[in-house]
Task: structure prediction
Amino acid sequence: MSVRVEVWGDYACYSRPEMKAERVSYDCMTPSAARGILEAVYWHPGLTWRIDRIYVLSPIQFTNIRRNEVKSKISARNVQAVMNRGAGMLYIATSDDIQQRASMVLKDVHYIIEAHFEMTDQANASDNPGKFQDIIKRRLKRGQCYHTPYLGCREFPARFRLYEGEEILTAYPDSDRELGYMLYDLDYRDPENIQPMFFRATLEKGVLDVRDCEVVR
Result:
């Protein structure tokens, strides 16, 4: 069962993991970010989303912004110590830990996500693909979601709707673009050792096709 979802927004940032202090976005949406948007619309333990294609409808444009972030995080060791003592302070004072960082982000983004779902062993006896398909399309038409989907970072919300058109006009109908290695997703099979997965991305005539890509760890 497949579905096409149109998403767009003012800004997006799909952070490259090789960039440490400063955030730099990939040229287009990653498959894991697309999956996150679909799961925000409809998540169920009885299904898992598989991304097929991502269509880039607007020209790729970068812009630089500066944002205030915190430079530290609450450590698990401190949390455990406070729990054992039954007293203590667990917070981050932004006035002390604030740090301004530059980010290279995308602007005026517009995509169509083409994906399908597969049933899992967590599905109930009453669950079936037709039922899930009806629920998903109904939620997309009504604009329903469990939480606001976002374009890479939570401060960049995504607007979305069900795409019911036949033809898709991309921003690059006559050219191909090599994007290098891109994050495909994270392998959560071992919670103690979560592994990132990458693939060599090519934008062919404005379409990122990930159906038969070679994934490396």
Q: What stands out?
A: The chain has one domain: 2-66+102-209. The CA atoms of residues 56 and 90 lie 43 Å apart. The longest strand covers residues 98-119. The radius of gyration is 20 Å.
